[in-house]
Amino acid sequence: MIRFAALFDVLDRTTKTNAKVAALAEYFREAPEADRLWTIALLSGRRPKRAVNSTELRIWASEAAGIPLWLFEEAYPIVGDLSETISLILPPATRSADRPLADWIADLIALTGQPADLRQAAILDAWDRLTTPERFLFNKLITGGFRMGVSQGLMTRALSQATGIEETALAHRLMGDWTPQTTTYARLVQTNDPASEGSRPYPFALATALDDAQALGDPADWLAEWKWDGIRGQLIKRPGAFALWSRGEELITDRFPEFAPLADFLPDGTVIDGEVLAWGDGAPLPFAQLQKRIGRLNVPKKLLTEAPAHMLAYDLLEENGEDLRPLPLSDRRARLDALVAALPKLPLAISPAVTFDAWPALAAIRETARERGAEGLMVKRLAAPYHVGRKRGDWWKWKLDPYTVDCVMIYAQSGSGRRATLFTDFTFAVKDGDDLVPFTKAYSGLTDAEFGEITAWVKRNTLEKFGPVRRVPPVQVFEIAFEGIQASSRHKSGIALRFPRMSRWRRDKPPEEIDTLDNLRALLP
User: Fold this and answer.
1) Using one digit for the tens of pLDDT, what is the confidence trace for 185-228?
2) What is the average per-residue pLDDT within 241-257?
3) Which CATH architecture has domain 205-398?
4) More confident: 51 or 234
């Protein structure tokens, strides 16, 4: 844990990418293999199952510190982080323990399901053997809120420097359904284990937002297709394996049983990149229909009937076991067309190319995206290989401008972490006749200076307090941008927004001129 805490300190103190890569590479060269494996897991989102809840930690920490729980609760919002609050209030450790990171995590895993008194004794014993920085990281491991300010791509680059293995090869090896309990560092990183290849997906290629299509040059060099509003996924058929992976590396095969027949018709050694959509009458259904199925391990027959799944295929990444990613998109797309054309009628089709001969013509087509159930367009260079992650220049997403609505802020709540001293989480309302109806929350979109300014205003103008929430006069007007809207019986307003964020603080607009609930209802599909 000492070595891991030192790594975290270096990463936390710098914003320079090269410095972070160098520190990680040195750690991957020198740390015990089990610690390297757990560090890779933590940086790729594979955290141990939570064995202790935050309420228990609050109580145990306040008792260990000899302070009343109410005082701990007052301190927590000021610090802004539960793990840091606990590490700061605890008395100094009376012992020391130079144990590897993997051993501490093994202890936490062993506590899962144990009685509260045994878990409390183990946590108190650990706190008494760790320094303040080590306690902070230990608490992060307990709560599952672990962050190191390092992307998976940056971690892969450091691992490549430490091992001499190409980044693209490592990125592929780190994908899929593995945990430190099911593999070893040597098996995962240093050997290309054929046994683990079965259902392993490839790292997804990602796109960059496009502002000016004219800058892309000759339209003949590009493929345009719709940017569908669904779940990005890779469909895999290999010997003995059939799987559907989400972009978040979640295995979702069982949630979409409609695709099971594809296992009988797709050739072995096939990997398709595409979008999973709810489908009806030959067209995509609103994302809200698909959302009902997300997170369900068992999908009831009613949902299968109301929101049947369909995949629109973008790309062919593997054919007959051959990795096609180095080939130009034009070649991969031709092979994909031939593959899908040979299949019987199944819930799989090609995402259609959008024909155009000039960028202004494509811009006009883009404006019809919502009518087609799409978010906008994807524009991809025909000569481009399938990259790992985001490589600027070859894949672009040209989304529609978001919807916007003017509304007033009625509630404010402080943020967490570095924003713990600022009010950053707001509830907004629109007019409904003579009343104000809350309809959404938003917490992003303003600058730090604007958050500081609105925080000072909230403190001066608080009307009531409800725990951490402040009610304020409905006079501050904000423009809220959002990607979609749907009817919702769970909300008082009867609507729910998709991806709401603050796009402008409308100091120029009086509250009497905000939008109405009817304005929003008119946008419902």
Assistant:
1) 988 888 765 555 677 899 999 999 998 898 899 999 999 999 99
2) 87
3) 2-Layer Sandwich (3.30)
4) 234
What's the number of CA atoms in the CB half-sphere (13 Å) around residue 236? Answer: 24
- The pLDDT-based confidence of 170 (bands split at 50, 70, 90) is confident
Evaluate whether 263 touches 308 at the Cβ level (below 8 Å).
no
Radius of gyration of the chain (CA): 26
Residues 307, 370, 406: CA angle, nearest 5 degrees: 110
Q: How far apart are CA 252 and CA 249, in angstroms?
A: 9
C-alpha atoms less than 13 angstroms from C-alpha of 59 in its C-beta half-sphere: 10
CB distance 72 to 57 below 8 Å:
no
Residue 191's pLDDT is 76
Distances (CA, A) of 205 to 160, 247, 291, 322, 325: 19, 10, 23, 18, 10
Amino acid at 403: Y
Which of 163-167, 309-313, 427-431 is predicted with the least confidence, judged by mean pLDDT? 163-167
**Residue 179 amino acid letter:** T
Q: Of residues 20, 140, 227, 431, which has the active-site annotation?
A: 227
**What is the rounded CA–CA span in Å between residue 52 and residue 139?**
10
**Catalytic annotation present for 227:** yes
What are residue 246's DSSP bridge partners?
233
For residue 239, give both structure tokens: 């010997």
Q: What is the C-alpha to C-alpha distance for residues 470 and 464, in angstroms, rounded to an integer?
A: 6
Q: Which two tokens stand for residue 79?
A: 């610090």
Helix (H) or strand (E) holding 454: helix 448-461
What the block records as the tokens of 313 is: 């295929």
Q: What is the third-level CATH fold of 2-143?
A: DNA ligase i, domain 1 (1.10.3260)
Q: Which residues of 155-169 are buried (b: 16+ CB within 10 A; e: fewer)?
A: bbbbbbbbbebebbe
Q: How does pLDDT run across 348-401, given as a tens digit for each residue?
A: 999 999 999 999 999 999 999 988 889 999 999 999 999 988 888 999 999 988
pLDDT (0 to 100) of residue 117:
92
pLDDT over 70 for what percent of the chain? 97
Domain with CATH 2.40.50.140 in the chain: 403-521
- Rounded to whole angstroms, how far apart are CA atoms 427 and 443? 9
In Å, how far from its chain's centre is CA 332?
28
Tokens, residue 521: 């209802």
Q: Which CATH class is domain 403-521?
A: mainly beta
Token pair, residue 412, equals 């404010």
Residues in the chain: 525
Confidence of residue 171 (pLDDT cuts 50, 70, 90): confident
Give residue for tokens 């008792």: 63
Query: In the numeric block, which tokens belong to residue 177?
Result: 């359904």
Segments of the chain assigned to CATH 1.10.3260.10? 2-143
